[in-house]
Design goal:
Layout: H1 7-34, H2 40-49, H3 52-69, H4 84-87, H5 112-148, H6 150-164, H7 168-176, H8 184-193, H9 197-210, H10 214-221, H11 226-262, H12 274-281, H13 290-317
Helix pairs in contact: 2-13, 3-5, 3-13, 5-6, 5-8, 5-9, 5-11, 5-13, 6-9, 7-8, 9-11, 10-11, 11-12, 11-13, 12-13
C-alpha cells in the first residue's frame, strides 16, 4: 500500500518548492542584470576612467576653469595695478608666491602672475562660446543637409564649401576689422562665423548614415514628425563624433583668439587675456623673456589639455580604437 503523507509534510514540501522557485527567479534576474549590455555612454565612461590622457587633461582643465571662474582664489593683486617706479620689468621673485612677484612684472609695472591668472577668463570664455556657437549652428546645418538630401543638401553643401575656402584666421581678421571696439563677444562672433563648417560636415555624414537605420524607418512609419525624428531619434546617435571634433577644436579657437590679439585685431585693453599680454610682450622678449613666456606657457597648456581630452574622448567613443 502507498505510504500516506501527512498534511504538515505536504505543506512543507509546497513551501520548499515556492522558496526554491523564488530563489531561482532572483538568481535569474541577477544574472540577466549582470549580462545586460552596456550603453555607448557607459562603455565610453569605462574607457575614459582607465585613460591617463583623460585624467591628465581633466586635472589641467579643472585648474584653468577654476582659475577663470574664481581668479581671486589664486591672487588678490589687481592685474591692472601699475607701478613703473618700483616694478618696471622686474624679474621673477620665487620667494613671494602669492604676492604678485612670483612671475615678475611687465613693462607697465603690472604683475605678470596676476595678469596670467585673470587672463584665463577671457581666453577660455572665447573658446567655449565659439565652440558652443559653431556646434549648434554647424550641427543644425549638417542635420538638415543630411536628412533632407536633394536640393537642400546641395544648397547647404555649396554654402559650406564657400566658407571652407576662407581660412579661420584670415576670415576672423577681416571681419573684426569692421569693429572699432573689440570685446569677448565680437571676437566670438568673428571666429564662429568662419568656424562651423567642419562640424556641419561631420554631422551631415553621421545623419546620412543614421537616417537609413531601422529605428528611424519605424518611427517614420508610426507617424513621427520630422522634428521628433531628428531630435529624439537621430541626434542622440550622432553626437559622439560631433563632441570629439568640438572638444579638439576648442583648443584651436583659444589659440586663434590669442593669435588675433597678438596681431592687434582681437581683444584690446582694458580686457586682460593671454593674447593681449603676448602681443604687448613681443617687444620686451630680449630684455624680459618672462613677460612673454609665462602667458604663452599657460596658453599652450590649455590648448594641449583640450586636445588631449578630445583624443581621449575619441578613443573612448570609437570601438575600432579600443
Amino acid at each position: 500500500m502507498p505510504e500516506k503523507t501527512s498534511p504538515e509534510a505536504g505543506r512543507s514540501t509546497v513551501a520548499a518548492a515556492v522558496v526554491g522557485a523564488a530563489e531561482l527567479t532572483e538568481a535569474t534576474i541577477k544574472t540577466q542584470g549582470q549580462n545586460k549590455p552596456r550603453s555607448l555612454g557607459q562603455d565610453a565612461w569605462r574607457e575614459l576612467r582607465g585613460s591617463w590622457l583623460f585624467w591628465a587633461s581633466g586635472v589641467l582643465l579643472v585648474i584653468f576653469i577654476v582659475m577663470a571662474a574664481f581668479p581671486t582664489l589664486f591672487t588678490d593683486v589687481d592685474p591692472r595695478q601699475a607701478d613703473l617706479r618700483g616694478h618696471y620689468l622686474a624679474p621673477p621673485n620665487w620667494s613671494h608666491f602669492f604676492q604678485g612677484d612670483w612671475f615678475g612684472y611687465n613693462g607697465q609695472g603690472q604683475s605678470v602672475y596676476a595678469r596670467t591668472v585673470h587672463g584665463a577668463r577671457a581666453s577660455i570664455i572665447v573658446g567655449v562660446c565659439v565652440t558652443i556657437a559653431v556646434t549648434v549652428f554647424g550641427g543644425l546645418v549638417g542635420m538638415l543637409a543630411g536628412y533632407f538630401g536633394g536640393w537642400v543638401d546641395g544648397l547647404l553643401s555649396r554654402i559650406t564649401d564657400i566658407f571652407f575656402g576662407i581660412p579661420l584666421l584670415l576670415g576672423g581678421l577681416t571681419l573684426l576689422q569692421a569693429f572699432t571696439h573689440r570685446t569677448v563677444w565680437t571676437v566670438t562672433l568673428g571666429l564662429a562665423t568662419f568656424g562651423w563648417m567642419q562640424i556641419a560636415r561631420v554631422m551631415r555624414g553621421a545623419v546620412i548614415t543614421q537616417k537609413q537605420a531601422d529605428f528611424v524607418t519605424a518611427a517614420r512609419a508610426l507617424g513621427a514628425g520630422t522634428g521628433r525624428i531628428l531630435f529624439r531619434h537621430i541626434l542622440p546617435n550622432v553626437l559622439g563624433p560631433v563632441i570629439v571634433v568640438a572638444t579638439i577644436a576648442l583648443g584651436g579657437y583659444i589659440s586663434t583668439e590669442a593669435t588675433l590679439s597678438y596681431l592687434g585685431i582681437g581683444l584690446q585693453d582694458p580686457v586682460v587675456s593671454w593674447g593681449v599680454d603676448i602681443s604687448a610682450a613681443q617687444s620686451q622678449l630680449r630684455d624680459a623673456p618672462h613677460v612673454l613666456l609665462v602667458p604663452a606657457t599657460f596658453l599652450s597648456l590649455t590648448v594641449l589639455a583640450f586636445i588631449l581630452l578630445g583624443d581621449a574622448v575619441r578613443d573612448a567613443l570609437d570601438p575600432k580604437l579600443r
